[in-house]
Amino acid sequence: xxxxxxxxxxxxxxxxxxxxxxxxxxxxxxxxxxxxxxxxxxxxxxxxxxxxxxxxxxxxxxxxxxxxxxxxxxxxxxxxxxxxxxxxxxxxxxxxxxxxxxxxxxxxxxxxxxxxxxxxxxxxxxxxxxxxxxxxxxxxxxxxxxxxxxxxxxxxxxxxxxxxxxxxxxxxxxxxxxxxxxxxxxxxxxxxxxxxxxxxxxxxxxxxxxxxxxxxxxxxxxxxxxxxxxxxxxxxxxxxxxxxxxxxxxxxxxxxxxxxxxxxxxxxxxxxxxxxxxxxxxxxxxxxxxxxxxxxxxxxxxxxxxxxxxxxxxxxxxxxxxxxxxxxxxxxxxxxxxxxxxxxxxxxxxxxxxxxxxxxxxxxxxxxxxxxxxxxxxxxxxxxxxxxxxxxxxxxxxxxxx
Length: 402
Fold this sequence. Notes:
This protein is an alpha/beta fold. The protein has two domains: 1-30; 40-399, Glycoside hydrolase, family 3, N-terminal domain (TIM Barrel, Alpha-Beta Barrel), CATH 3.20.20. It is built from 17 helices and nine strands. A six-stranded parallel beta sheet has the order 5-4-3-2-1-9. A three-stranded parallel beta sheet has the order 6-7-8. α2 packs across α17 and α15 packs across α16 (365-377). The chain is globular. The N and C termini lie far apart (46 Å).
């Protein structure tokens, strides 16, 4: 009997050793930037795995993780002036030009726009092509529900459509926001996306607002806040990371930052009583990403500088006063509010100095990338500052359930 017991115990010890070996292999394999994963599941590594991966990365790899870009940015032969130009170019696959540029310019994320998405068959082809790029980019999209929906507004996709977030907010029931986020998250997960740049956390208090409007849940922060967190929970339960936007609030503006300068004249105390109610709710819920607005807030910063470029807004207010510790990502840096004042190089370096972790959609990607590399090499930005952002990014990547 004893002999059988010892044999059984030995077998169990061997089984435990094999299981631990397998788990170690799962946690340590990968491309150097991400851990091993499959389509349906992801095993989060220990906390120190972030440091292990960080130490293995070159400076170029780390800087690459701080850029999320459009596919067209990797093809130097593409010239465009307006968004209509990009729609007409219609990049629907990863081309050889894109691959060649990407060999020397790794990227942390790719955002697909409506003109990159034709139908389910094409989407199923392009997503693995994107994932194979240098930097193992995450797949991102603007799929808010309502007007800004790259997939739902495409007639080739049969998914549930929503009138607007304002119509959901008008019901007064946060469960409807959860259902919206979960439905959108479910089809995004099925198609292969990682991040949805939604929901809009702005409080639409200005009836003359031409860019937010019905994209916001409400003009009342007490109504909007639970809608925002419920939507985030719906995305999370579907396996998609959400991103609240546009900090410090684009709801009380009249101009469109896509085309030029916009501002909010509120003081910080006024923002705390309104806009910050929704952002605080999202932070308390545990949101992983906050997107900046390119709006000026002169009565907060004392200047007309876009919030994306303002250390007062991002470091003092968002990080310091509100205690936010996760990823700050810019709104698209190809937008007029940025390009009319800064070069791609100036905007990338300046936004990182202001406190952002990810630069989204610079107008000229390679110029922006080279500028950040130069800034680190000449001491304008310390490598430890880069490491701070990359730690946040790696933590997000390694914690994703896929």
